[in-house]
Amino acid sequence: MPAVVIITEPFVSSAQAMAVAHGLPDYPFVVIPHPIAATASNTLQGWADQVADQVAGMFLHTTG
Protein backbone atom coordinates (compact mmCIF):
# COMPACT_ATOMS: atom_id res chain seq x y z
CA MET A 1 0.00 0.00 0.00
CA PRO A 2 1.47 3.38 -0.98
CA ALA A 3 2.36 5.77 1.80
CA VAL A 4 4.08 9.11 2.25
CA VAL A 5 5.73 9.88 5.56
CA ILE A 6 5.13 13.42 6.80
CA ILE A 7 7.08 14.53 9.86
CA THR A 8 7.79 17.75 11.69
CA GLU A 9 11.24 19.33 11.79
CA PRO A 10 12.42 18.00 15.19
CA PHE A 11 11.93 14.42 14.00
CA VAL A 12 14.13 14.51 10.88
CA SER A 13 17.09 12.76 12.52
CA SER A 14 14.80 10.10 14.03
CA ALA A 15 13.13 9.47 10.67
CA GLN A 16 16.51 9.17 8.96
CA ALA A 17 17.73 6.76 11.65
CA MET A 18 14.61 4.60 11.29
CA ALA A 19 15.01 4.52 7.52
CA VAL A 20 18.62 3.40 7.86
CA ALA A 21 17.70 0.82 10.52
CA HIS A 22 15.17 -0.68 8.10
CA GLY A 23 17.64 -0.79 5.23
CA LEU A 24 16.20 2.20 3.35
CA PRO A 25 18.77 4.97 3.88
CA ASP A 26 17.37 7.10 1.04
CA TYR A 27 13.71 6.75 2.05
CA PRO A 28 12.02 10.05 1.20
CA PHE A 29 9.76 11.93 3.58
CA VAL A 30 8.08 15.30 3.75
CA VAL A 31 9.04 17.75 6.47
CA ILE A 32 6.70 20.41 7.83
CA PRO A 33 7.22 22.90 10.69
CA HIS A 34 6.63 22.06 14.33
CA PRO A 35 4.46 21.99 16.41
CA ILE A 36 1.17 20.57 15.17
CA ALA A 37 -1.05 20.46 18.27
CA ALA A 38 -0.72 24.13 19.22
CA THR A 39 -0.87 25.53 15.69
CA ALA A 40 -3.92 27.30 14.27
CA SER A 41 -5.82 25.35 11.64
CA ASN A 42 -5.31 28.04 8.99
CA THR A 43 -1.55 27.80 9.52
CA LEU A 44 -1.69 24.00 9.28
CA GLN A 45 -3.66 24.34 6.05
CA GLY A 46 -0.96 26.63 4.70
CA TRP A 47 1.74 24.11 5.57
CA ALA A 48 -0.29 21.37 3.89
CA ASP A 49 -0.73 23.52 0.79
CA GLN A 50 3.04 24.10 0.66
CA VAL A 51 3.84 20.36 0.58
CA ALA A 52 0.84 19.09 -1.41
CA ASP A 53 2.72 18.88 -4.70
CA GLN A 54 5.64 17.12 -3.02
CA VAL A 55 3.30 14.57 -1.43
CA ALA A 56 1.48 13.98 -4.72
CA GLY A 57 4.80 13.58 -6.52
CA MET A 58 5.95 11.01 -4.01
CA PHE A 59 2.74 9.01 -4.50
CA LEU A 60 3.29 9.20 -8.25
CA HIS A 61 7.05 8.54 -7.93
CA THR A 62 7.94 11.80 -9.65
CA THR A 63 9.78 13.34 -6.68
CA GLY A 64 11.85 11.97 -3.84
Kindly state the mean pLDDT as a whole number? 94
Physical arrangement of strands within the biggest beta sheet: 1-2
Q: Considering DSSP H and I runs of 4 or more, what fraction of the residues is helical?
A: 40-55%
Distance between the termini: 17 Å
Total helix count?
Answer: 2
The global form is: flat
What is the rounded Rg? 13 Å
The assigned structural class equals: mainly alpha
Report the biggest beta sheet as strand number plus sense, adding barrel if it closes.
2 strands, parallel
Order of helices and strands: EHEH
> How many beta-strand elements?
2
What can you see in these coordinates?
The protein has 64 residues and is mostly helical. The chain has one domain. Helices cover 45% and strands 9% of the residues. The protein contains two helices and two strands, in the order βαβα. It has helices at 12-21, 41-59; strands at 6-8, 30-32. The longest helix is centred in the C-terminal third of the chain and has 19 residues, at 41-59. The mean pLDDT is 94.
Nutshell version of this structure?
The chain has 64 residues and is mainly alpha-helical. The chain has helices at 12-21, 41-59, and strands spanning 6-8, 30-32.
